[in-house]
């Protein structure tokens, strides 16, 4: 644990981060790597499957962002064009790419999630994975929560591969029909137990409810029932993509006789992803190049101008989501005293936004805190709490004071 931060249990708001010492604005309070991470916008930016670092040459990034047939010829040397390596996955047919041989090795190492998700040259597994990805991308409501939950499952299976006992090894390599022991699967699931795990399809709300908080109860019930069906179909496709992993043969501890990865468990893992994921943004290294091109628009000829017209404005950064063992457990405030910053080392730092006194709770914002209070509360509704931070209480108090006066003025003016 950090000398600046500790985590305490059983507070009125559950687990919470607390400042061990006084800290000034800009102080790095804590740092850690993610349990799982996900690249959310691969259609915009090419990034490492493992660490999310932008990969390859800058010209290839610009080609990808502008959807050109070939890379733009704008660099006088390969050295100027170089951004990072681009290492393909060792498995034939796998589309994963990495920023270095070291990242590729880590992804495939025992305990690495890609060791489970990789198609390993199997055309049927690759096709099954594509069906899962295509289905969750069709969903209007938060597809990346499903993708993050997929990585949580992969991390459990990868951890099982790492710690399985002799009985489990026999069941995998010598007795294919035998059932692995539940103890190893329980240990593999242990890192995820501290997290809040509401069933996603029991907390999800229609997108329209953010703008219209008065959405009728029957509409919400109907919507959630449809989302349960979506989750069930996503699980069916995921299990096909994972193949016959031995850990999936272990039955549910509830005694249902089915695999522990049943719909109830899957719903909780998607809920875990929804409530505990933190946003990841890594700046696109092509920004300085594009800035120079735009500053000298017209001087480089038609080829440069055509490139600038094709590029999106602004140039997209790497966007992702990640779940951290400790940082994801920090509580929310609409006036936070810290923020999480992700970097290219596949880690995150918790930075103080203001002076923090010893013993103060350290908070971050889960949402865009610049929104009006009603929209903030609507956005927080899927987190299953109502924010009572000083900012919210102050804004709500003013709304109560001003509303009668506004109503009276409207009545007096004949409005």
Which structural class do the helices and strands define?
alpha+beta
Number of separate strands: 12
Please state the overall shape, judged from the principal axes of the Cα atoms: globular
> What helical percentage do the residues reach?
40-55%
Outline the biggest β-sheet.
Answer: 4 strands, mixed
Distance between the termini: 60 Å
H/I helix tally: 16
Mean pLDDT: 86
Structural Rg: 24 Å
Enumerate the strands of the largest sheet in spatial order, edge to edge or round the barrel: 1-2-12-9
List the secondary-structure elements in sequence, H or E.
EEEEHHEEHHHHHHHHHHEHHEEEEEHH
| Low-confidence blocks of residues | none
Oligomer: single chain
Strand fraction: 5-15%
What features would you highlight for this structure?
415 residues; alpha+beta; four-stranded mixed beta sheet; three-stranded antiparallel beta sheet; 12 strands; globular
Task: Describe the 3D structure.
The protein is α+β, with helices and mostly antiparallel strands and about 425 residues long. The protein has helices spanning about 60-65, 80, 100-110, 115, 125-140, 145-165, 165-175, 180-190, 200-205, 210, 215-240, 265-275, 285-295, 300-310, 375-380, 390-410; strands at about 5-10, 15-20, 30, 35-40, 85-90, 95-100, 280, 320-325, 330, 340-345, 345-350, 360-365. The strands form four sheets. A four-stranded mixed beta sheet has the order 1-2-12-9, with no helix packed on it. It has a three-stranded antiparallel beta sheet with strand order 3-11-10, with no helix packed on it. Strands 4-8-7 form a three-stranded antiparallel beta sheet, covered by helices on one side. Strand 10 and strand 11 form a beta hairpin. Helix 5 runs antiparallel to helix 11 (about 215-240) and helix 6 (about 145-165) packs across helix 8. The longest helix has 26 residues, at about 215-240. The radius of gyration is 24 Å and the shape is globular. About 35% of the residues are buried. The model has no long low-confidence stretch (mean pLDDT about 85).
């Amino acid at each position: 644990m950090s000398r600046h931060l500790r985590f305490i249990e059983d507070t009125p708001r559950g687990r919470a981060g607390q400042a061990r010492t006084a800290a000034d604005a800009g102080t790095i309070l804590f740092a850690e790597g993610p349990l799982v991470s996900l690249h959310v916008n691969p259609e915009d930016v090419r990034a490492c499957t493992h660490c999310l670092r932008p990969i390859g040459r800058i010209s290839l990034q610009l080609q990808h962002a502008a959807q050109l047939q070939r890379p733009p010829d704008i660099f006088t040397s390969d050295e100027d064009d170089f951004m990072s390596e681009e290492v393909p996955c060792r498995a034939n047919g796998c589309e994963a790419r990495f920023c270095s041989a070291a990242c590729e090795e880590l992804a495939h190492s025992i305990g690495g999630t890609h060791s489970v998700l990789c198609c390993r040259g199997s055309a049927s597994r690759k096709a099954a994975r594509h069906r899962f990805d295509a289905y969750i991308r069709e969903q209007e409501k938060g597809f990346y929560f499903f993708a993050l939950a997929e990585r949580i499952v992969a991390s459990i299976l990868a951890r099982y591969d790492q710690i399985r006992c002799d009985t489990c090894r026999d069941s995998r390599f010598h007795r294919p029909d035998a059932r692995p022991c539940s103890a190893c699967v329980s240990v593999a699931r242990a890192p995820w137990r501290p997290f809040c795990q509401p069933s996603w399809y029991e907390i999800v709300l229609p997108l329209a409810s953010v703008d219209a908080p008065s959405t009728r109860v029957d509409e919400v019930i109907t919507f959630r029932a449809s989302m349960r069906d979506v989750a069930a179909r996503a699980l069916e496709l995921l299990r096909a993509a994972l193949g016959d992993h031995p850990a999936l043969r272990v039955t549910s501890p509830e005694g249902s006789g089915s695999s522990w990865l049943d719909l109830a468990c899957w719903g909780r893992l998607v809920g875990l992803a929804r409530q505990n994921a933190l946003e990841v943004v890594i700046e696109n290294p092509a920004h300085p190049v594009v800035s120079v091109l735009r500053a000298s628009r017209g001087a480089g000829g038609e080829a440069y101008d055509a490139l600038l017209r094709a590029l999106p404005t602004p140039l997209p950064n790497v966007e992702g989501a990640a779940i951290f063992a400790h940082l994801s457990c920090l509580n929310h405030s609409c006036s936070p005293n810290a923020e999480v910053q992700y970097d290219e080392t596949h880690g995150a730092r918790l930075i103080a936004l203001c002076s923090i006194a010893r013993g103060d709770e350290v908070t971050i914002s889960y949402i865009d805190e610049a929104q009006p209070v009603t929209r903030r509360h609507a956005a927080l509704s899927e987190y299953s709490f109502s924010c009572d931070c000083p900012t919210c209480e102050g804004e709500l108090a003013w709304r109560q004071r001003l509303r009668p006066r506004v109503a009276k003025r409207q009545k007096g003016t004949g409005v």
